[in-house]
Design a protein that fits this description.
Layout (H helix, E strand, L loop, with lengths): L6 H10 L7 H22 L8 E5 L5 E3 H15 L4 E6 L6 E2 L9 E9 L10 E9 L9 H4 L8 E7 L3 E6 L4 E7 L4 E6 L10 E3 L10 H12 L10 E2 L5 H11 L2 E4 L3 H5 L6 E2 H14 L3 E3 L16 E2 L1 E4 L1 H13 L1
Parallel strand pairs: 3-5, 11-12, 11-13
Antiparallel strand pairs: 1-2, 3-4, 5-6, 6-7, 7-8, 8-9, 9-10, 13-17, 14-16, 15-17
Helix pairs in contact: 1-2, 2-3, 5-9
The chain binds 2,5-anhydro-1,6-di-O-phosphono-D-glucitol and manganese (II) ion (2 copies).
């Protein structure tokens, strides 16, 4: 009987090619996969175990937390801080970076994560996910500070997400393409189901929250208007639209069948003093790494996301990602004003 390749097999194989590898990275990815399996199980059980609904608390960004935002955050912290593979953690749900307890064994990696992305969808039983970005910790730092995490996306060692949809899927890049794994819940293993994801350069599908259109800048309005004009307009072809409101689900769709996703700068978020909606360190950077590794592109409309010099753990940025030619077009429209 053919068994196939597990996520663990794949990571061990990646480490085999690195002479100095100690197994720590394999251990870290294993910790992440355990956390995601646990979250997947909680999402599956939902109302049966009373994990849905609001926690009636706010995170550092002033967003109301769902019970599962808090529980997933705890699961991730617990799974990642007890095995000596990380030096520190940072989470969407935590104001400050997380240091390990005194005496705990420290590893060489920093992990930034969004424990539950798209959590507004959790109560309506629509796909949610977990996003993570892995960086190297500075040498000899036992308790990394926020500054140590503020590295540009180009320095990511690995990035991935786990999608809790009809199937639970882990999608991972270590800088050598993008691989997809589907959780076989009977045996508790993520099995490789796609060895090389690739995004077509062109598309006829876009994803944007249209209800924000009156707040957009002119270049974004121009791009979307041209898409909506379809065959009769500038583009000479009809476009389809999707908006799940879970970035993980949108990125997954783009990896599977192409498309472009945008959460651009808008005057609504600017009025709150924010440069966009999505967070650079644990949403935009890891997703950009994955998208670029699959042959797509990711910019703010003005610059490559992974080149941004980060200023804060919870910094927000505009995001335009997916099909290369579409992202280049949107970016050109911004440069033309
Ligand atoms: P989170 O649930 O982690 O706060 O992230 C939600 C994000 C992202 O997943 C999604 O693309 C976007 O917010 C949805 O925004 P709208 O509610 O404006 O549609
Ligand atoms: Mn999110
Ligand atoms: Mn979240």
């Amino acid at each position: 009987m053919h068994i196939g390749t597990t996520l663990t097999n794949c990571i061990i194989e990646t480490q085999r090619n690195i002479k100095s590898a100690t197994g720590e990275f394999t251990g870290l990815l294993n910790d992440i996969s355990v956390a995601c399996k646990k979250i997947s199980d909680l999402v599956d059980k939902g109302d049966l175990i009373d994990v849905l609904g609001s926690a009636e608390s706010e995170n550092v960004q002033g967003e109301t937390q769902k019970k599962l935002d808090i529980i997933s955050n705890e699961v991730f912290i617990s799974a990642l801080s007890q095995n000596g593979h990380v030096a520190g953690l940072a989470s969407e749900e935590m104001d400050e970076v997380i240091n390990l307890p005194e005496g705990a064994v420290r590893g060489h990696y920093l992990v930034l994560f969004d424990p539950l992305d798209g959590s507004s969808n959790i109560d309506v039983n629509v796909s949610v996910g977990t996003i993570f970005s892995i960086l190297r910790a500075p040498e000899g730092v036992a308790n990394p500070r926020a500054e140590d995490f503020l590295q540009p996306g180009t320095r990511q060692v690995a990035a991935g997400y786990c999608l809790y949809g009809p199937s639970t899927m882990m999608v991972l890049t270590t800088g050598q393409g993008v691989k997809m794994f589907t959780l076989d819940k009977d045996i508790g293993e993520f099995m490789m189901t796609k060895g090389e994801a690739s995004i077509p350069e062109d598309t006829q599908e876009f994803a944007i929250n249209m209800s924000n259109s009156r707040f957009w800048e002119a270049p974004v309005k121009r791009y979307i208007d041209e898409c909506l004009a379809g065959k009769d307009g500038e583009r000479g072809k009809d476009f389809n639209m999707r908006w799940v409101a879970s970035m993980v689900a949108e990125v997954h769709r783009i990896l599977q069948r192409g498309g472009v996703f945008m959460y651009p700068l808008d005057s609504k978020t600017m009025a709150k003093g924010q440069e966009g909606k999505l967070r650079l360190m644990y949403e935009a950077n890891p997703m950009s790494f994955i998208i670029e590794q699959a042959g797509g592109a990711a910019t703010t409309g003005r610059e490559r996301i992974m080149d941004i010099d980060p200023q804060g753990i919870h910094q927000r940025v505009p995001v335009v990602l997916g099909a290369k030619n579409e992202v280049e077009r949107v970016t050109r429209y911004h440069s033309e004003g």
